Amino acid sequence: MNGRTDRIESLVLAVILTTVAVAAGWASFTHVHDWTMRHAPAGTPDAFGWVNAVISELVPVAAVLTIKRRRRTSQPIGYPLFLLIAAATLSLSAQLAVAQPSPSGWLLSAVPALAFMALVKLVFAQTSPPTAPAPTIAPAAADEQGATVAAADNATPAPARPAGLVPVPAEAFIRHNGTPLVSEVTS
């Protein structure tokens, strides 16, 4: 039942996120388009405003994806982070520029950009998988003086194995075609 509930919740979340993304994207694109066209030279085609809107609104998404990929591969994230901040600032500036000059006008106009940024963060937030507990290593036996008890012939003590692990012989590792995965080293 838990798997079905998780699937239903995931589906509902996907529908909500898609709806918010489309609505916020449409409003943000429209604001950037209007701001661009308001400040473009006379005779500039309307398509230029839409192109500018698409570029300025999708760069943050691409930057977040790049940051996420670079974190997975331990690469530097400085440049994509700069792009994310710059594009988000540009988008928010466009939202505020077309607003009525009042606190409520600025807030209402900024909602699409803020919602889009929050949505991107929500969708691409890194969730860490549950961590498995570290294996417990059984302590070596010691005599009364604290020295490690060695084998009967006073040889070097065998390394301690994690509790619960059983050694597997190399012969157990055989490919489907019958050849061993581990070749025995003869000395």
General description of the model:
- By secondary structure, the chain is mainly alpha-helical.
- The chain starts with a helix and ends in a 63-residue tail after the last helix.
- Helices cover 57% and strands 0% of the residues.
- The longest helix has 38 residues.
- The protein is built from 4 helices and no strands.
- It has a domain of 123 residues.
Q: Tell me the β content.
A: under 5%
Largest sheet: none
The proportion of residues forming helix, as a percent range, comes to 55-70%
Rg, please?
30 Å
What's this entry about, in short?
57% of the residues lie in helices and 0% in strands.
Annotate the secondary structure layout:
Layout: H1 2-39, H2 46-72, H3 78-97, H4 103-124
Helix pairs in contact: 1-2, 1-3, 1-4, 2-3, 2-4, 3-4
